[in-house]
Q: What sequence folds into this?
């Protein structure tokens, strides 16, 4: 197995001489085997190795046991070990998110902090996914109604994230652990059938291997690679097709010309449109794509509601896809909506997504509808609305202010549009006039520690 992993790392150019590898180690068998293999390869391939363990504050004594196993192994083999502790249940309540999503956020935060400490150049994050994880993901996504993209499973290399043991099946890892007498722990929650993935792991995959084909997992991993190539090509074709039918207000009008194209390109283009309007792909499936394609064959006036407030309607011009407009807001009674950080807000003004992450000199995103701000300079709750009397924007580094109405006039924004442009607000201070200026006070500087990233998608503007 050791030689197999070494060849896989070289084949995918995962690690270069001089790289610093931050290995995510939970204490489970997969991550402990990966850490052991990376330790053996570090001298041969010329990279440095550190372990990163995240204590989520969820499983009490069991979580403390996991940490103890990781720390002892690292001490025994002189591996630097960085431990990050989070109160995930408390943060989940504060952020109004589930434990699983909150766990993902704090793990990303932990690795971001380690990258900042280590320097961003040459740093790789190693995660211990294996072929069985890939197969489970494929089956899970297939059952949920995924298209080809969901069947591509897990990538060996994704940016600076690498998965060195993705070439191994779980039984191979178990054999390596026994052969090398490597200590590891078992998360009790992984033994239960409360989660869909666990049921796939405990029942469906074993049945496939015993009753269908002993090499089912291996064959699914191979198929995943082929599917990924096909999906990438078709996604590019679908995006190019969709661009022809995008409207000035951010919606999409799919005309008869669109529905004359190849069906597979229609499906990819519709999925791209839904992802574009939602700002994410999660919870959008092939079922929603099929509903939209079937709508074209129905009478004018039919409408369907989709995830994230997306509405699809059949009119004389074709199928229109847009974010749903609430009746009260359509009547002009624009409410001020709170934007949680991190969090997502959907309203008639569009979709806003806010995230925070550490800043260690990354290139600032200059996209028109994505803004980075110095989060430490924002000390009040954020909200989204249109302009009100008293609103102002800080227009210079010395704190000079200008009324937002004056800014809009100076920027030659029409009178009609002034009442409809979304504003990201902190009290009466405008942090961002969406599509235009942002506050000079909140711009990123070399002293910035935390970044607030706000992404805007869609809306009912005419621009």
A:
């Amino acid at each position: 197995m050791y030689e197999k992993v070494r060849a896989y790392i070289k084949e995918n150019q995962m690690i270069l001489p001089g790289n610093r590898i931050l290995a995510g180690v939970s204490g489970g068998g997969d991550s402990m085997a990966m850490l052991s293999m990376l330790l053996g390869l570090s001298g041969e391939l010329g990279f440095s190795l550190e372990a990163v363990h995240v204590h989520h504050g969820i499983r009490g004594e069991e979580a403390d046991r996991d940490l103890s196993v990781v720390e002892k192994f690292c001490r025994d083999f002189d591996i630097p070990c960085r431990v990050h502790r989070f109160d995930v249940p408390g943060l989940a309540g504060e952020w109004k998110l589930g434990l699983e999503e909150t766990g993902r956020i704090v793990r990303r935060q932990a690795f971001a902090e380690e990258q900042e400490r280590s320097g961003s150049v040459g740093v790789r994050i190693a995660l211990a996914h294996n072929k069985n994880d890939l197969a489970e993901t494929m089956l899970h996504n297939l059952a949920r109604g995924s298209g080809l993209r969901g069947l591509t499973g897990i990538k060996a290399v994704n940016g600076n994230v690498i998965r060195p043991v993705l070439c191994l099946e779980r039984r191979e890892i178990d054999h390596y652990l026994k052969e090398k007498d490597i200590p590891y722990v078992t998360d009790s929650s992984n033994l239960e059938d409360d989660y869909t993935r666990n049921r796939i792991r405990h029942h469906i995959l074993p049945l496939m291997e015993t009753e269908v084909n002993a090499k089912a997992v291996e064959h699914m991993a191979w198929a995943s690679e082929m599917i990924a190539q096909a999906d990438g090509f078709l996604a590019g074709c679908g995006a190019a097709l969709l661009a022809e039918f995008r409207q000035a207000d951010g919606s999409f009008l799919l005309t008869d010309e669109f529905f004359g194209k190849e069906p597979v390109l229609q499906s990819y283009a519709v999925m791209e449109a839904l992802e574009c309007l939602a700002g994410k792909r999660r919870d959008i499936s092939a079922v929603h794509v099929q509903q939209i394609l079937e709508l074209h064959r129905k009478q004018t006036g039919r409408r369907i509601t989709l995830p994230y407030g997306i509405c699809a309607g059949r009119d004389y011009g074709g199928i229109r896809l847009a974010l749903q407009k609430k009746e009260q807001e359509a009547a002009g009674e624009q409410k001020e909506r709170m934007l949680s950080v991190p969090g997502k807000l959907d309203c008639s003004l569009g979709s806003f997504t806010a995230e925070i992450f550490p800043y260690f000199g990354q290139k600032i995103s200059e996209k028109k509808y994505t803004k980075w701000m110095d989060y430490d300079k924002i000390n009040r709750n954020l909200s989204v609305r249109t302009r009100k009397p008293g609103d102002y924007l800080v227009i210079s580094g010395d704190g000079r202010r200008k009324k937002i109405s004056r800014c809009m006039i100076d920027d030659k924004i029409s009178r009609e549009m002034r009442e409809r442009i979304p504003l990201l607000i902190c009290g009466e201070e405008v942090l961002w006039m969406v599509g235009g200026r942002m506050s000079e006070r909140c711009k990123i500087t070399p002293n910035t520690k935390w970044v607030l990233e706000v992404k805007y998608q869609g809306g009912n503007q005419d621009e």
